[in-house]
UniProtKB/TrEMBL annotation:
The keyword 4Fe-4S does not apply. One of its GO terms (molecular function) is metal ion binding. Residues 12-232 form the Radical SAM core domain. This is Radical SAM protein. Pfam families: Radical_SAM. InterPro entries: Aldolase_TIM, rSAM, rSAM_sf, Sulphatase_maturase_rSAM. PROSITE patterns: RADICAL_SAM. Keywords: Iron, Iron-sulfur, Metal-binding, S-adenosyl-L-methionine. NCBIfam families: rSAM_phane_AMC. It comes from Virgisporangium aurantiacum. Coiled coil: none annotated. The lineage of its organism: Bacteria, Bacillati, Actinomycetota, Actinomycetes, Micromonosporales.
Amino acid sequence: MRPLPDRSAAATVARTFHTLIVQPTTLCNLDCAYCYLPDRTRQRLMSVPVAAACAASVAVQDSDHPVDVVWHGGEPTATPLEHFRALLAPFEPLRAAGRVRHGIQTNATLLNERWCELLSAFQFQVGVSVDGPPWANRHRVDRAGHDTHARTIRGVRQLRQAGIPFTAICVVTPDTIDRVDDLVAFFTMLGCTSVGFNIEEQEGSQRAVVDEQAAYRFWQRLVQLRTAGNALSVRDLDRLVGYLHATRTDPRPLAAPFDPIPTVGFNGQTVLLSPELLGITAADYQDFIAGNVLTASLPQMIADADRLRYVREFTTALHACASNCGFFDFCRGAQAGNRYFEHGTFTVAETHYCRTTRQALVRAAAAELTEGR
Ligand code: SF4
């Protein structure tokens, strides 16, 4: 008989990281209605010593697993291109050794030939943020309140002309959630290799949240389209399929602990567990700062993470998830940021986010796939 996965081992924060999020600039050229980034109107650039300290932290961590270094903003391409290139330089020995893979999440509006050359040269995995056709994308406006859809599509065209594959991330809002077929048609036409649907979350911005029944219908329709042969790769469905496959072949992946996901701000200040916590002021949690990469390595910060109240609270909630929640083996405990933004604490296990994004997906897939059996 196959051993059951050790859920208590899974409900801890790992001592090494597979994902590192870095902020080359705080500036974003857009002003999306649901944006939570507090400093997005100011151009504050990461310095080369901060980037070098990030690279040094990857080099010293006790793991051969490649690290996905995700350049996130602000809007990362609002960084002057030559400065961005200088930030990449310290990572080059690691990239050459296969220990670092670069990724970027961009609104694509500033992409041009020179950016595409850089993305190709450094083998970036590119993610484009776009919420669907113009009617669905209307929350993504510039500072003057103007629509940005055409500019994003122009950037996507640049990627395609340069032969750069890209994924997409779509924020699904209460007014788009019932138009699944239209969204699927759009992302199929866009030519992305995969799309991730993020049900709108309650982060720094106070906006209407998606109803749980609507979320269920959304995932249900996506599953129906997939089982009917639709070829669009959907990140969330692929994860579920991957999980089901893993449980059939090897239980070990289920024992993986939570990635600490260090996020390093432009000035080296670092938060753990959730990039959304960067730049948020919270006296009770000392602004979530685990340290500064200029004075402490990331492995050191992670080793000391238990002294941080929010990390201790999150670990407690992870244990509650592992003990009590039937979705844990797939979910892994969901996001720290959602717990905080919804409840002002990290101790709450079940959130609106996990009900609309993890639980509704699994319920809808289970109902669809077992119907009539
Ligand atoms: S679905 Fe919610 S309660 Fe369940 S494991 Fe995930 S985060 Fe925890």
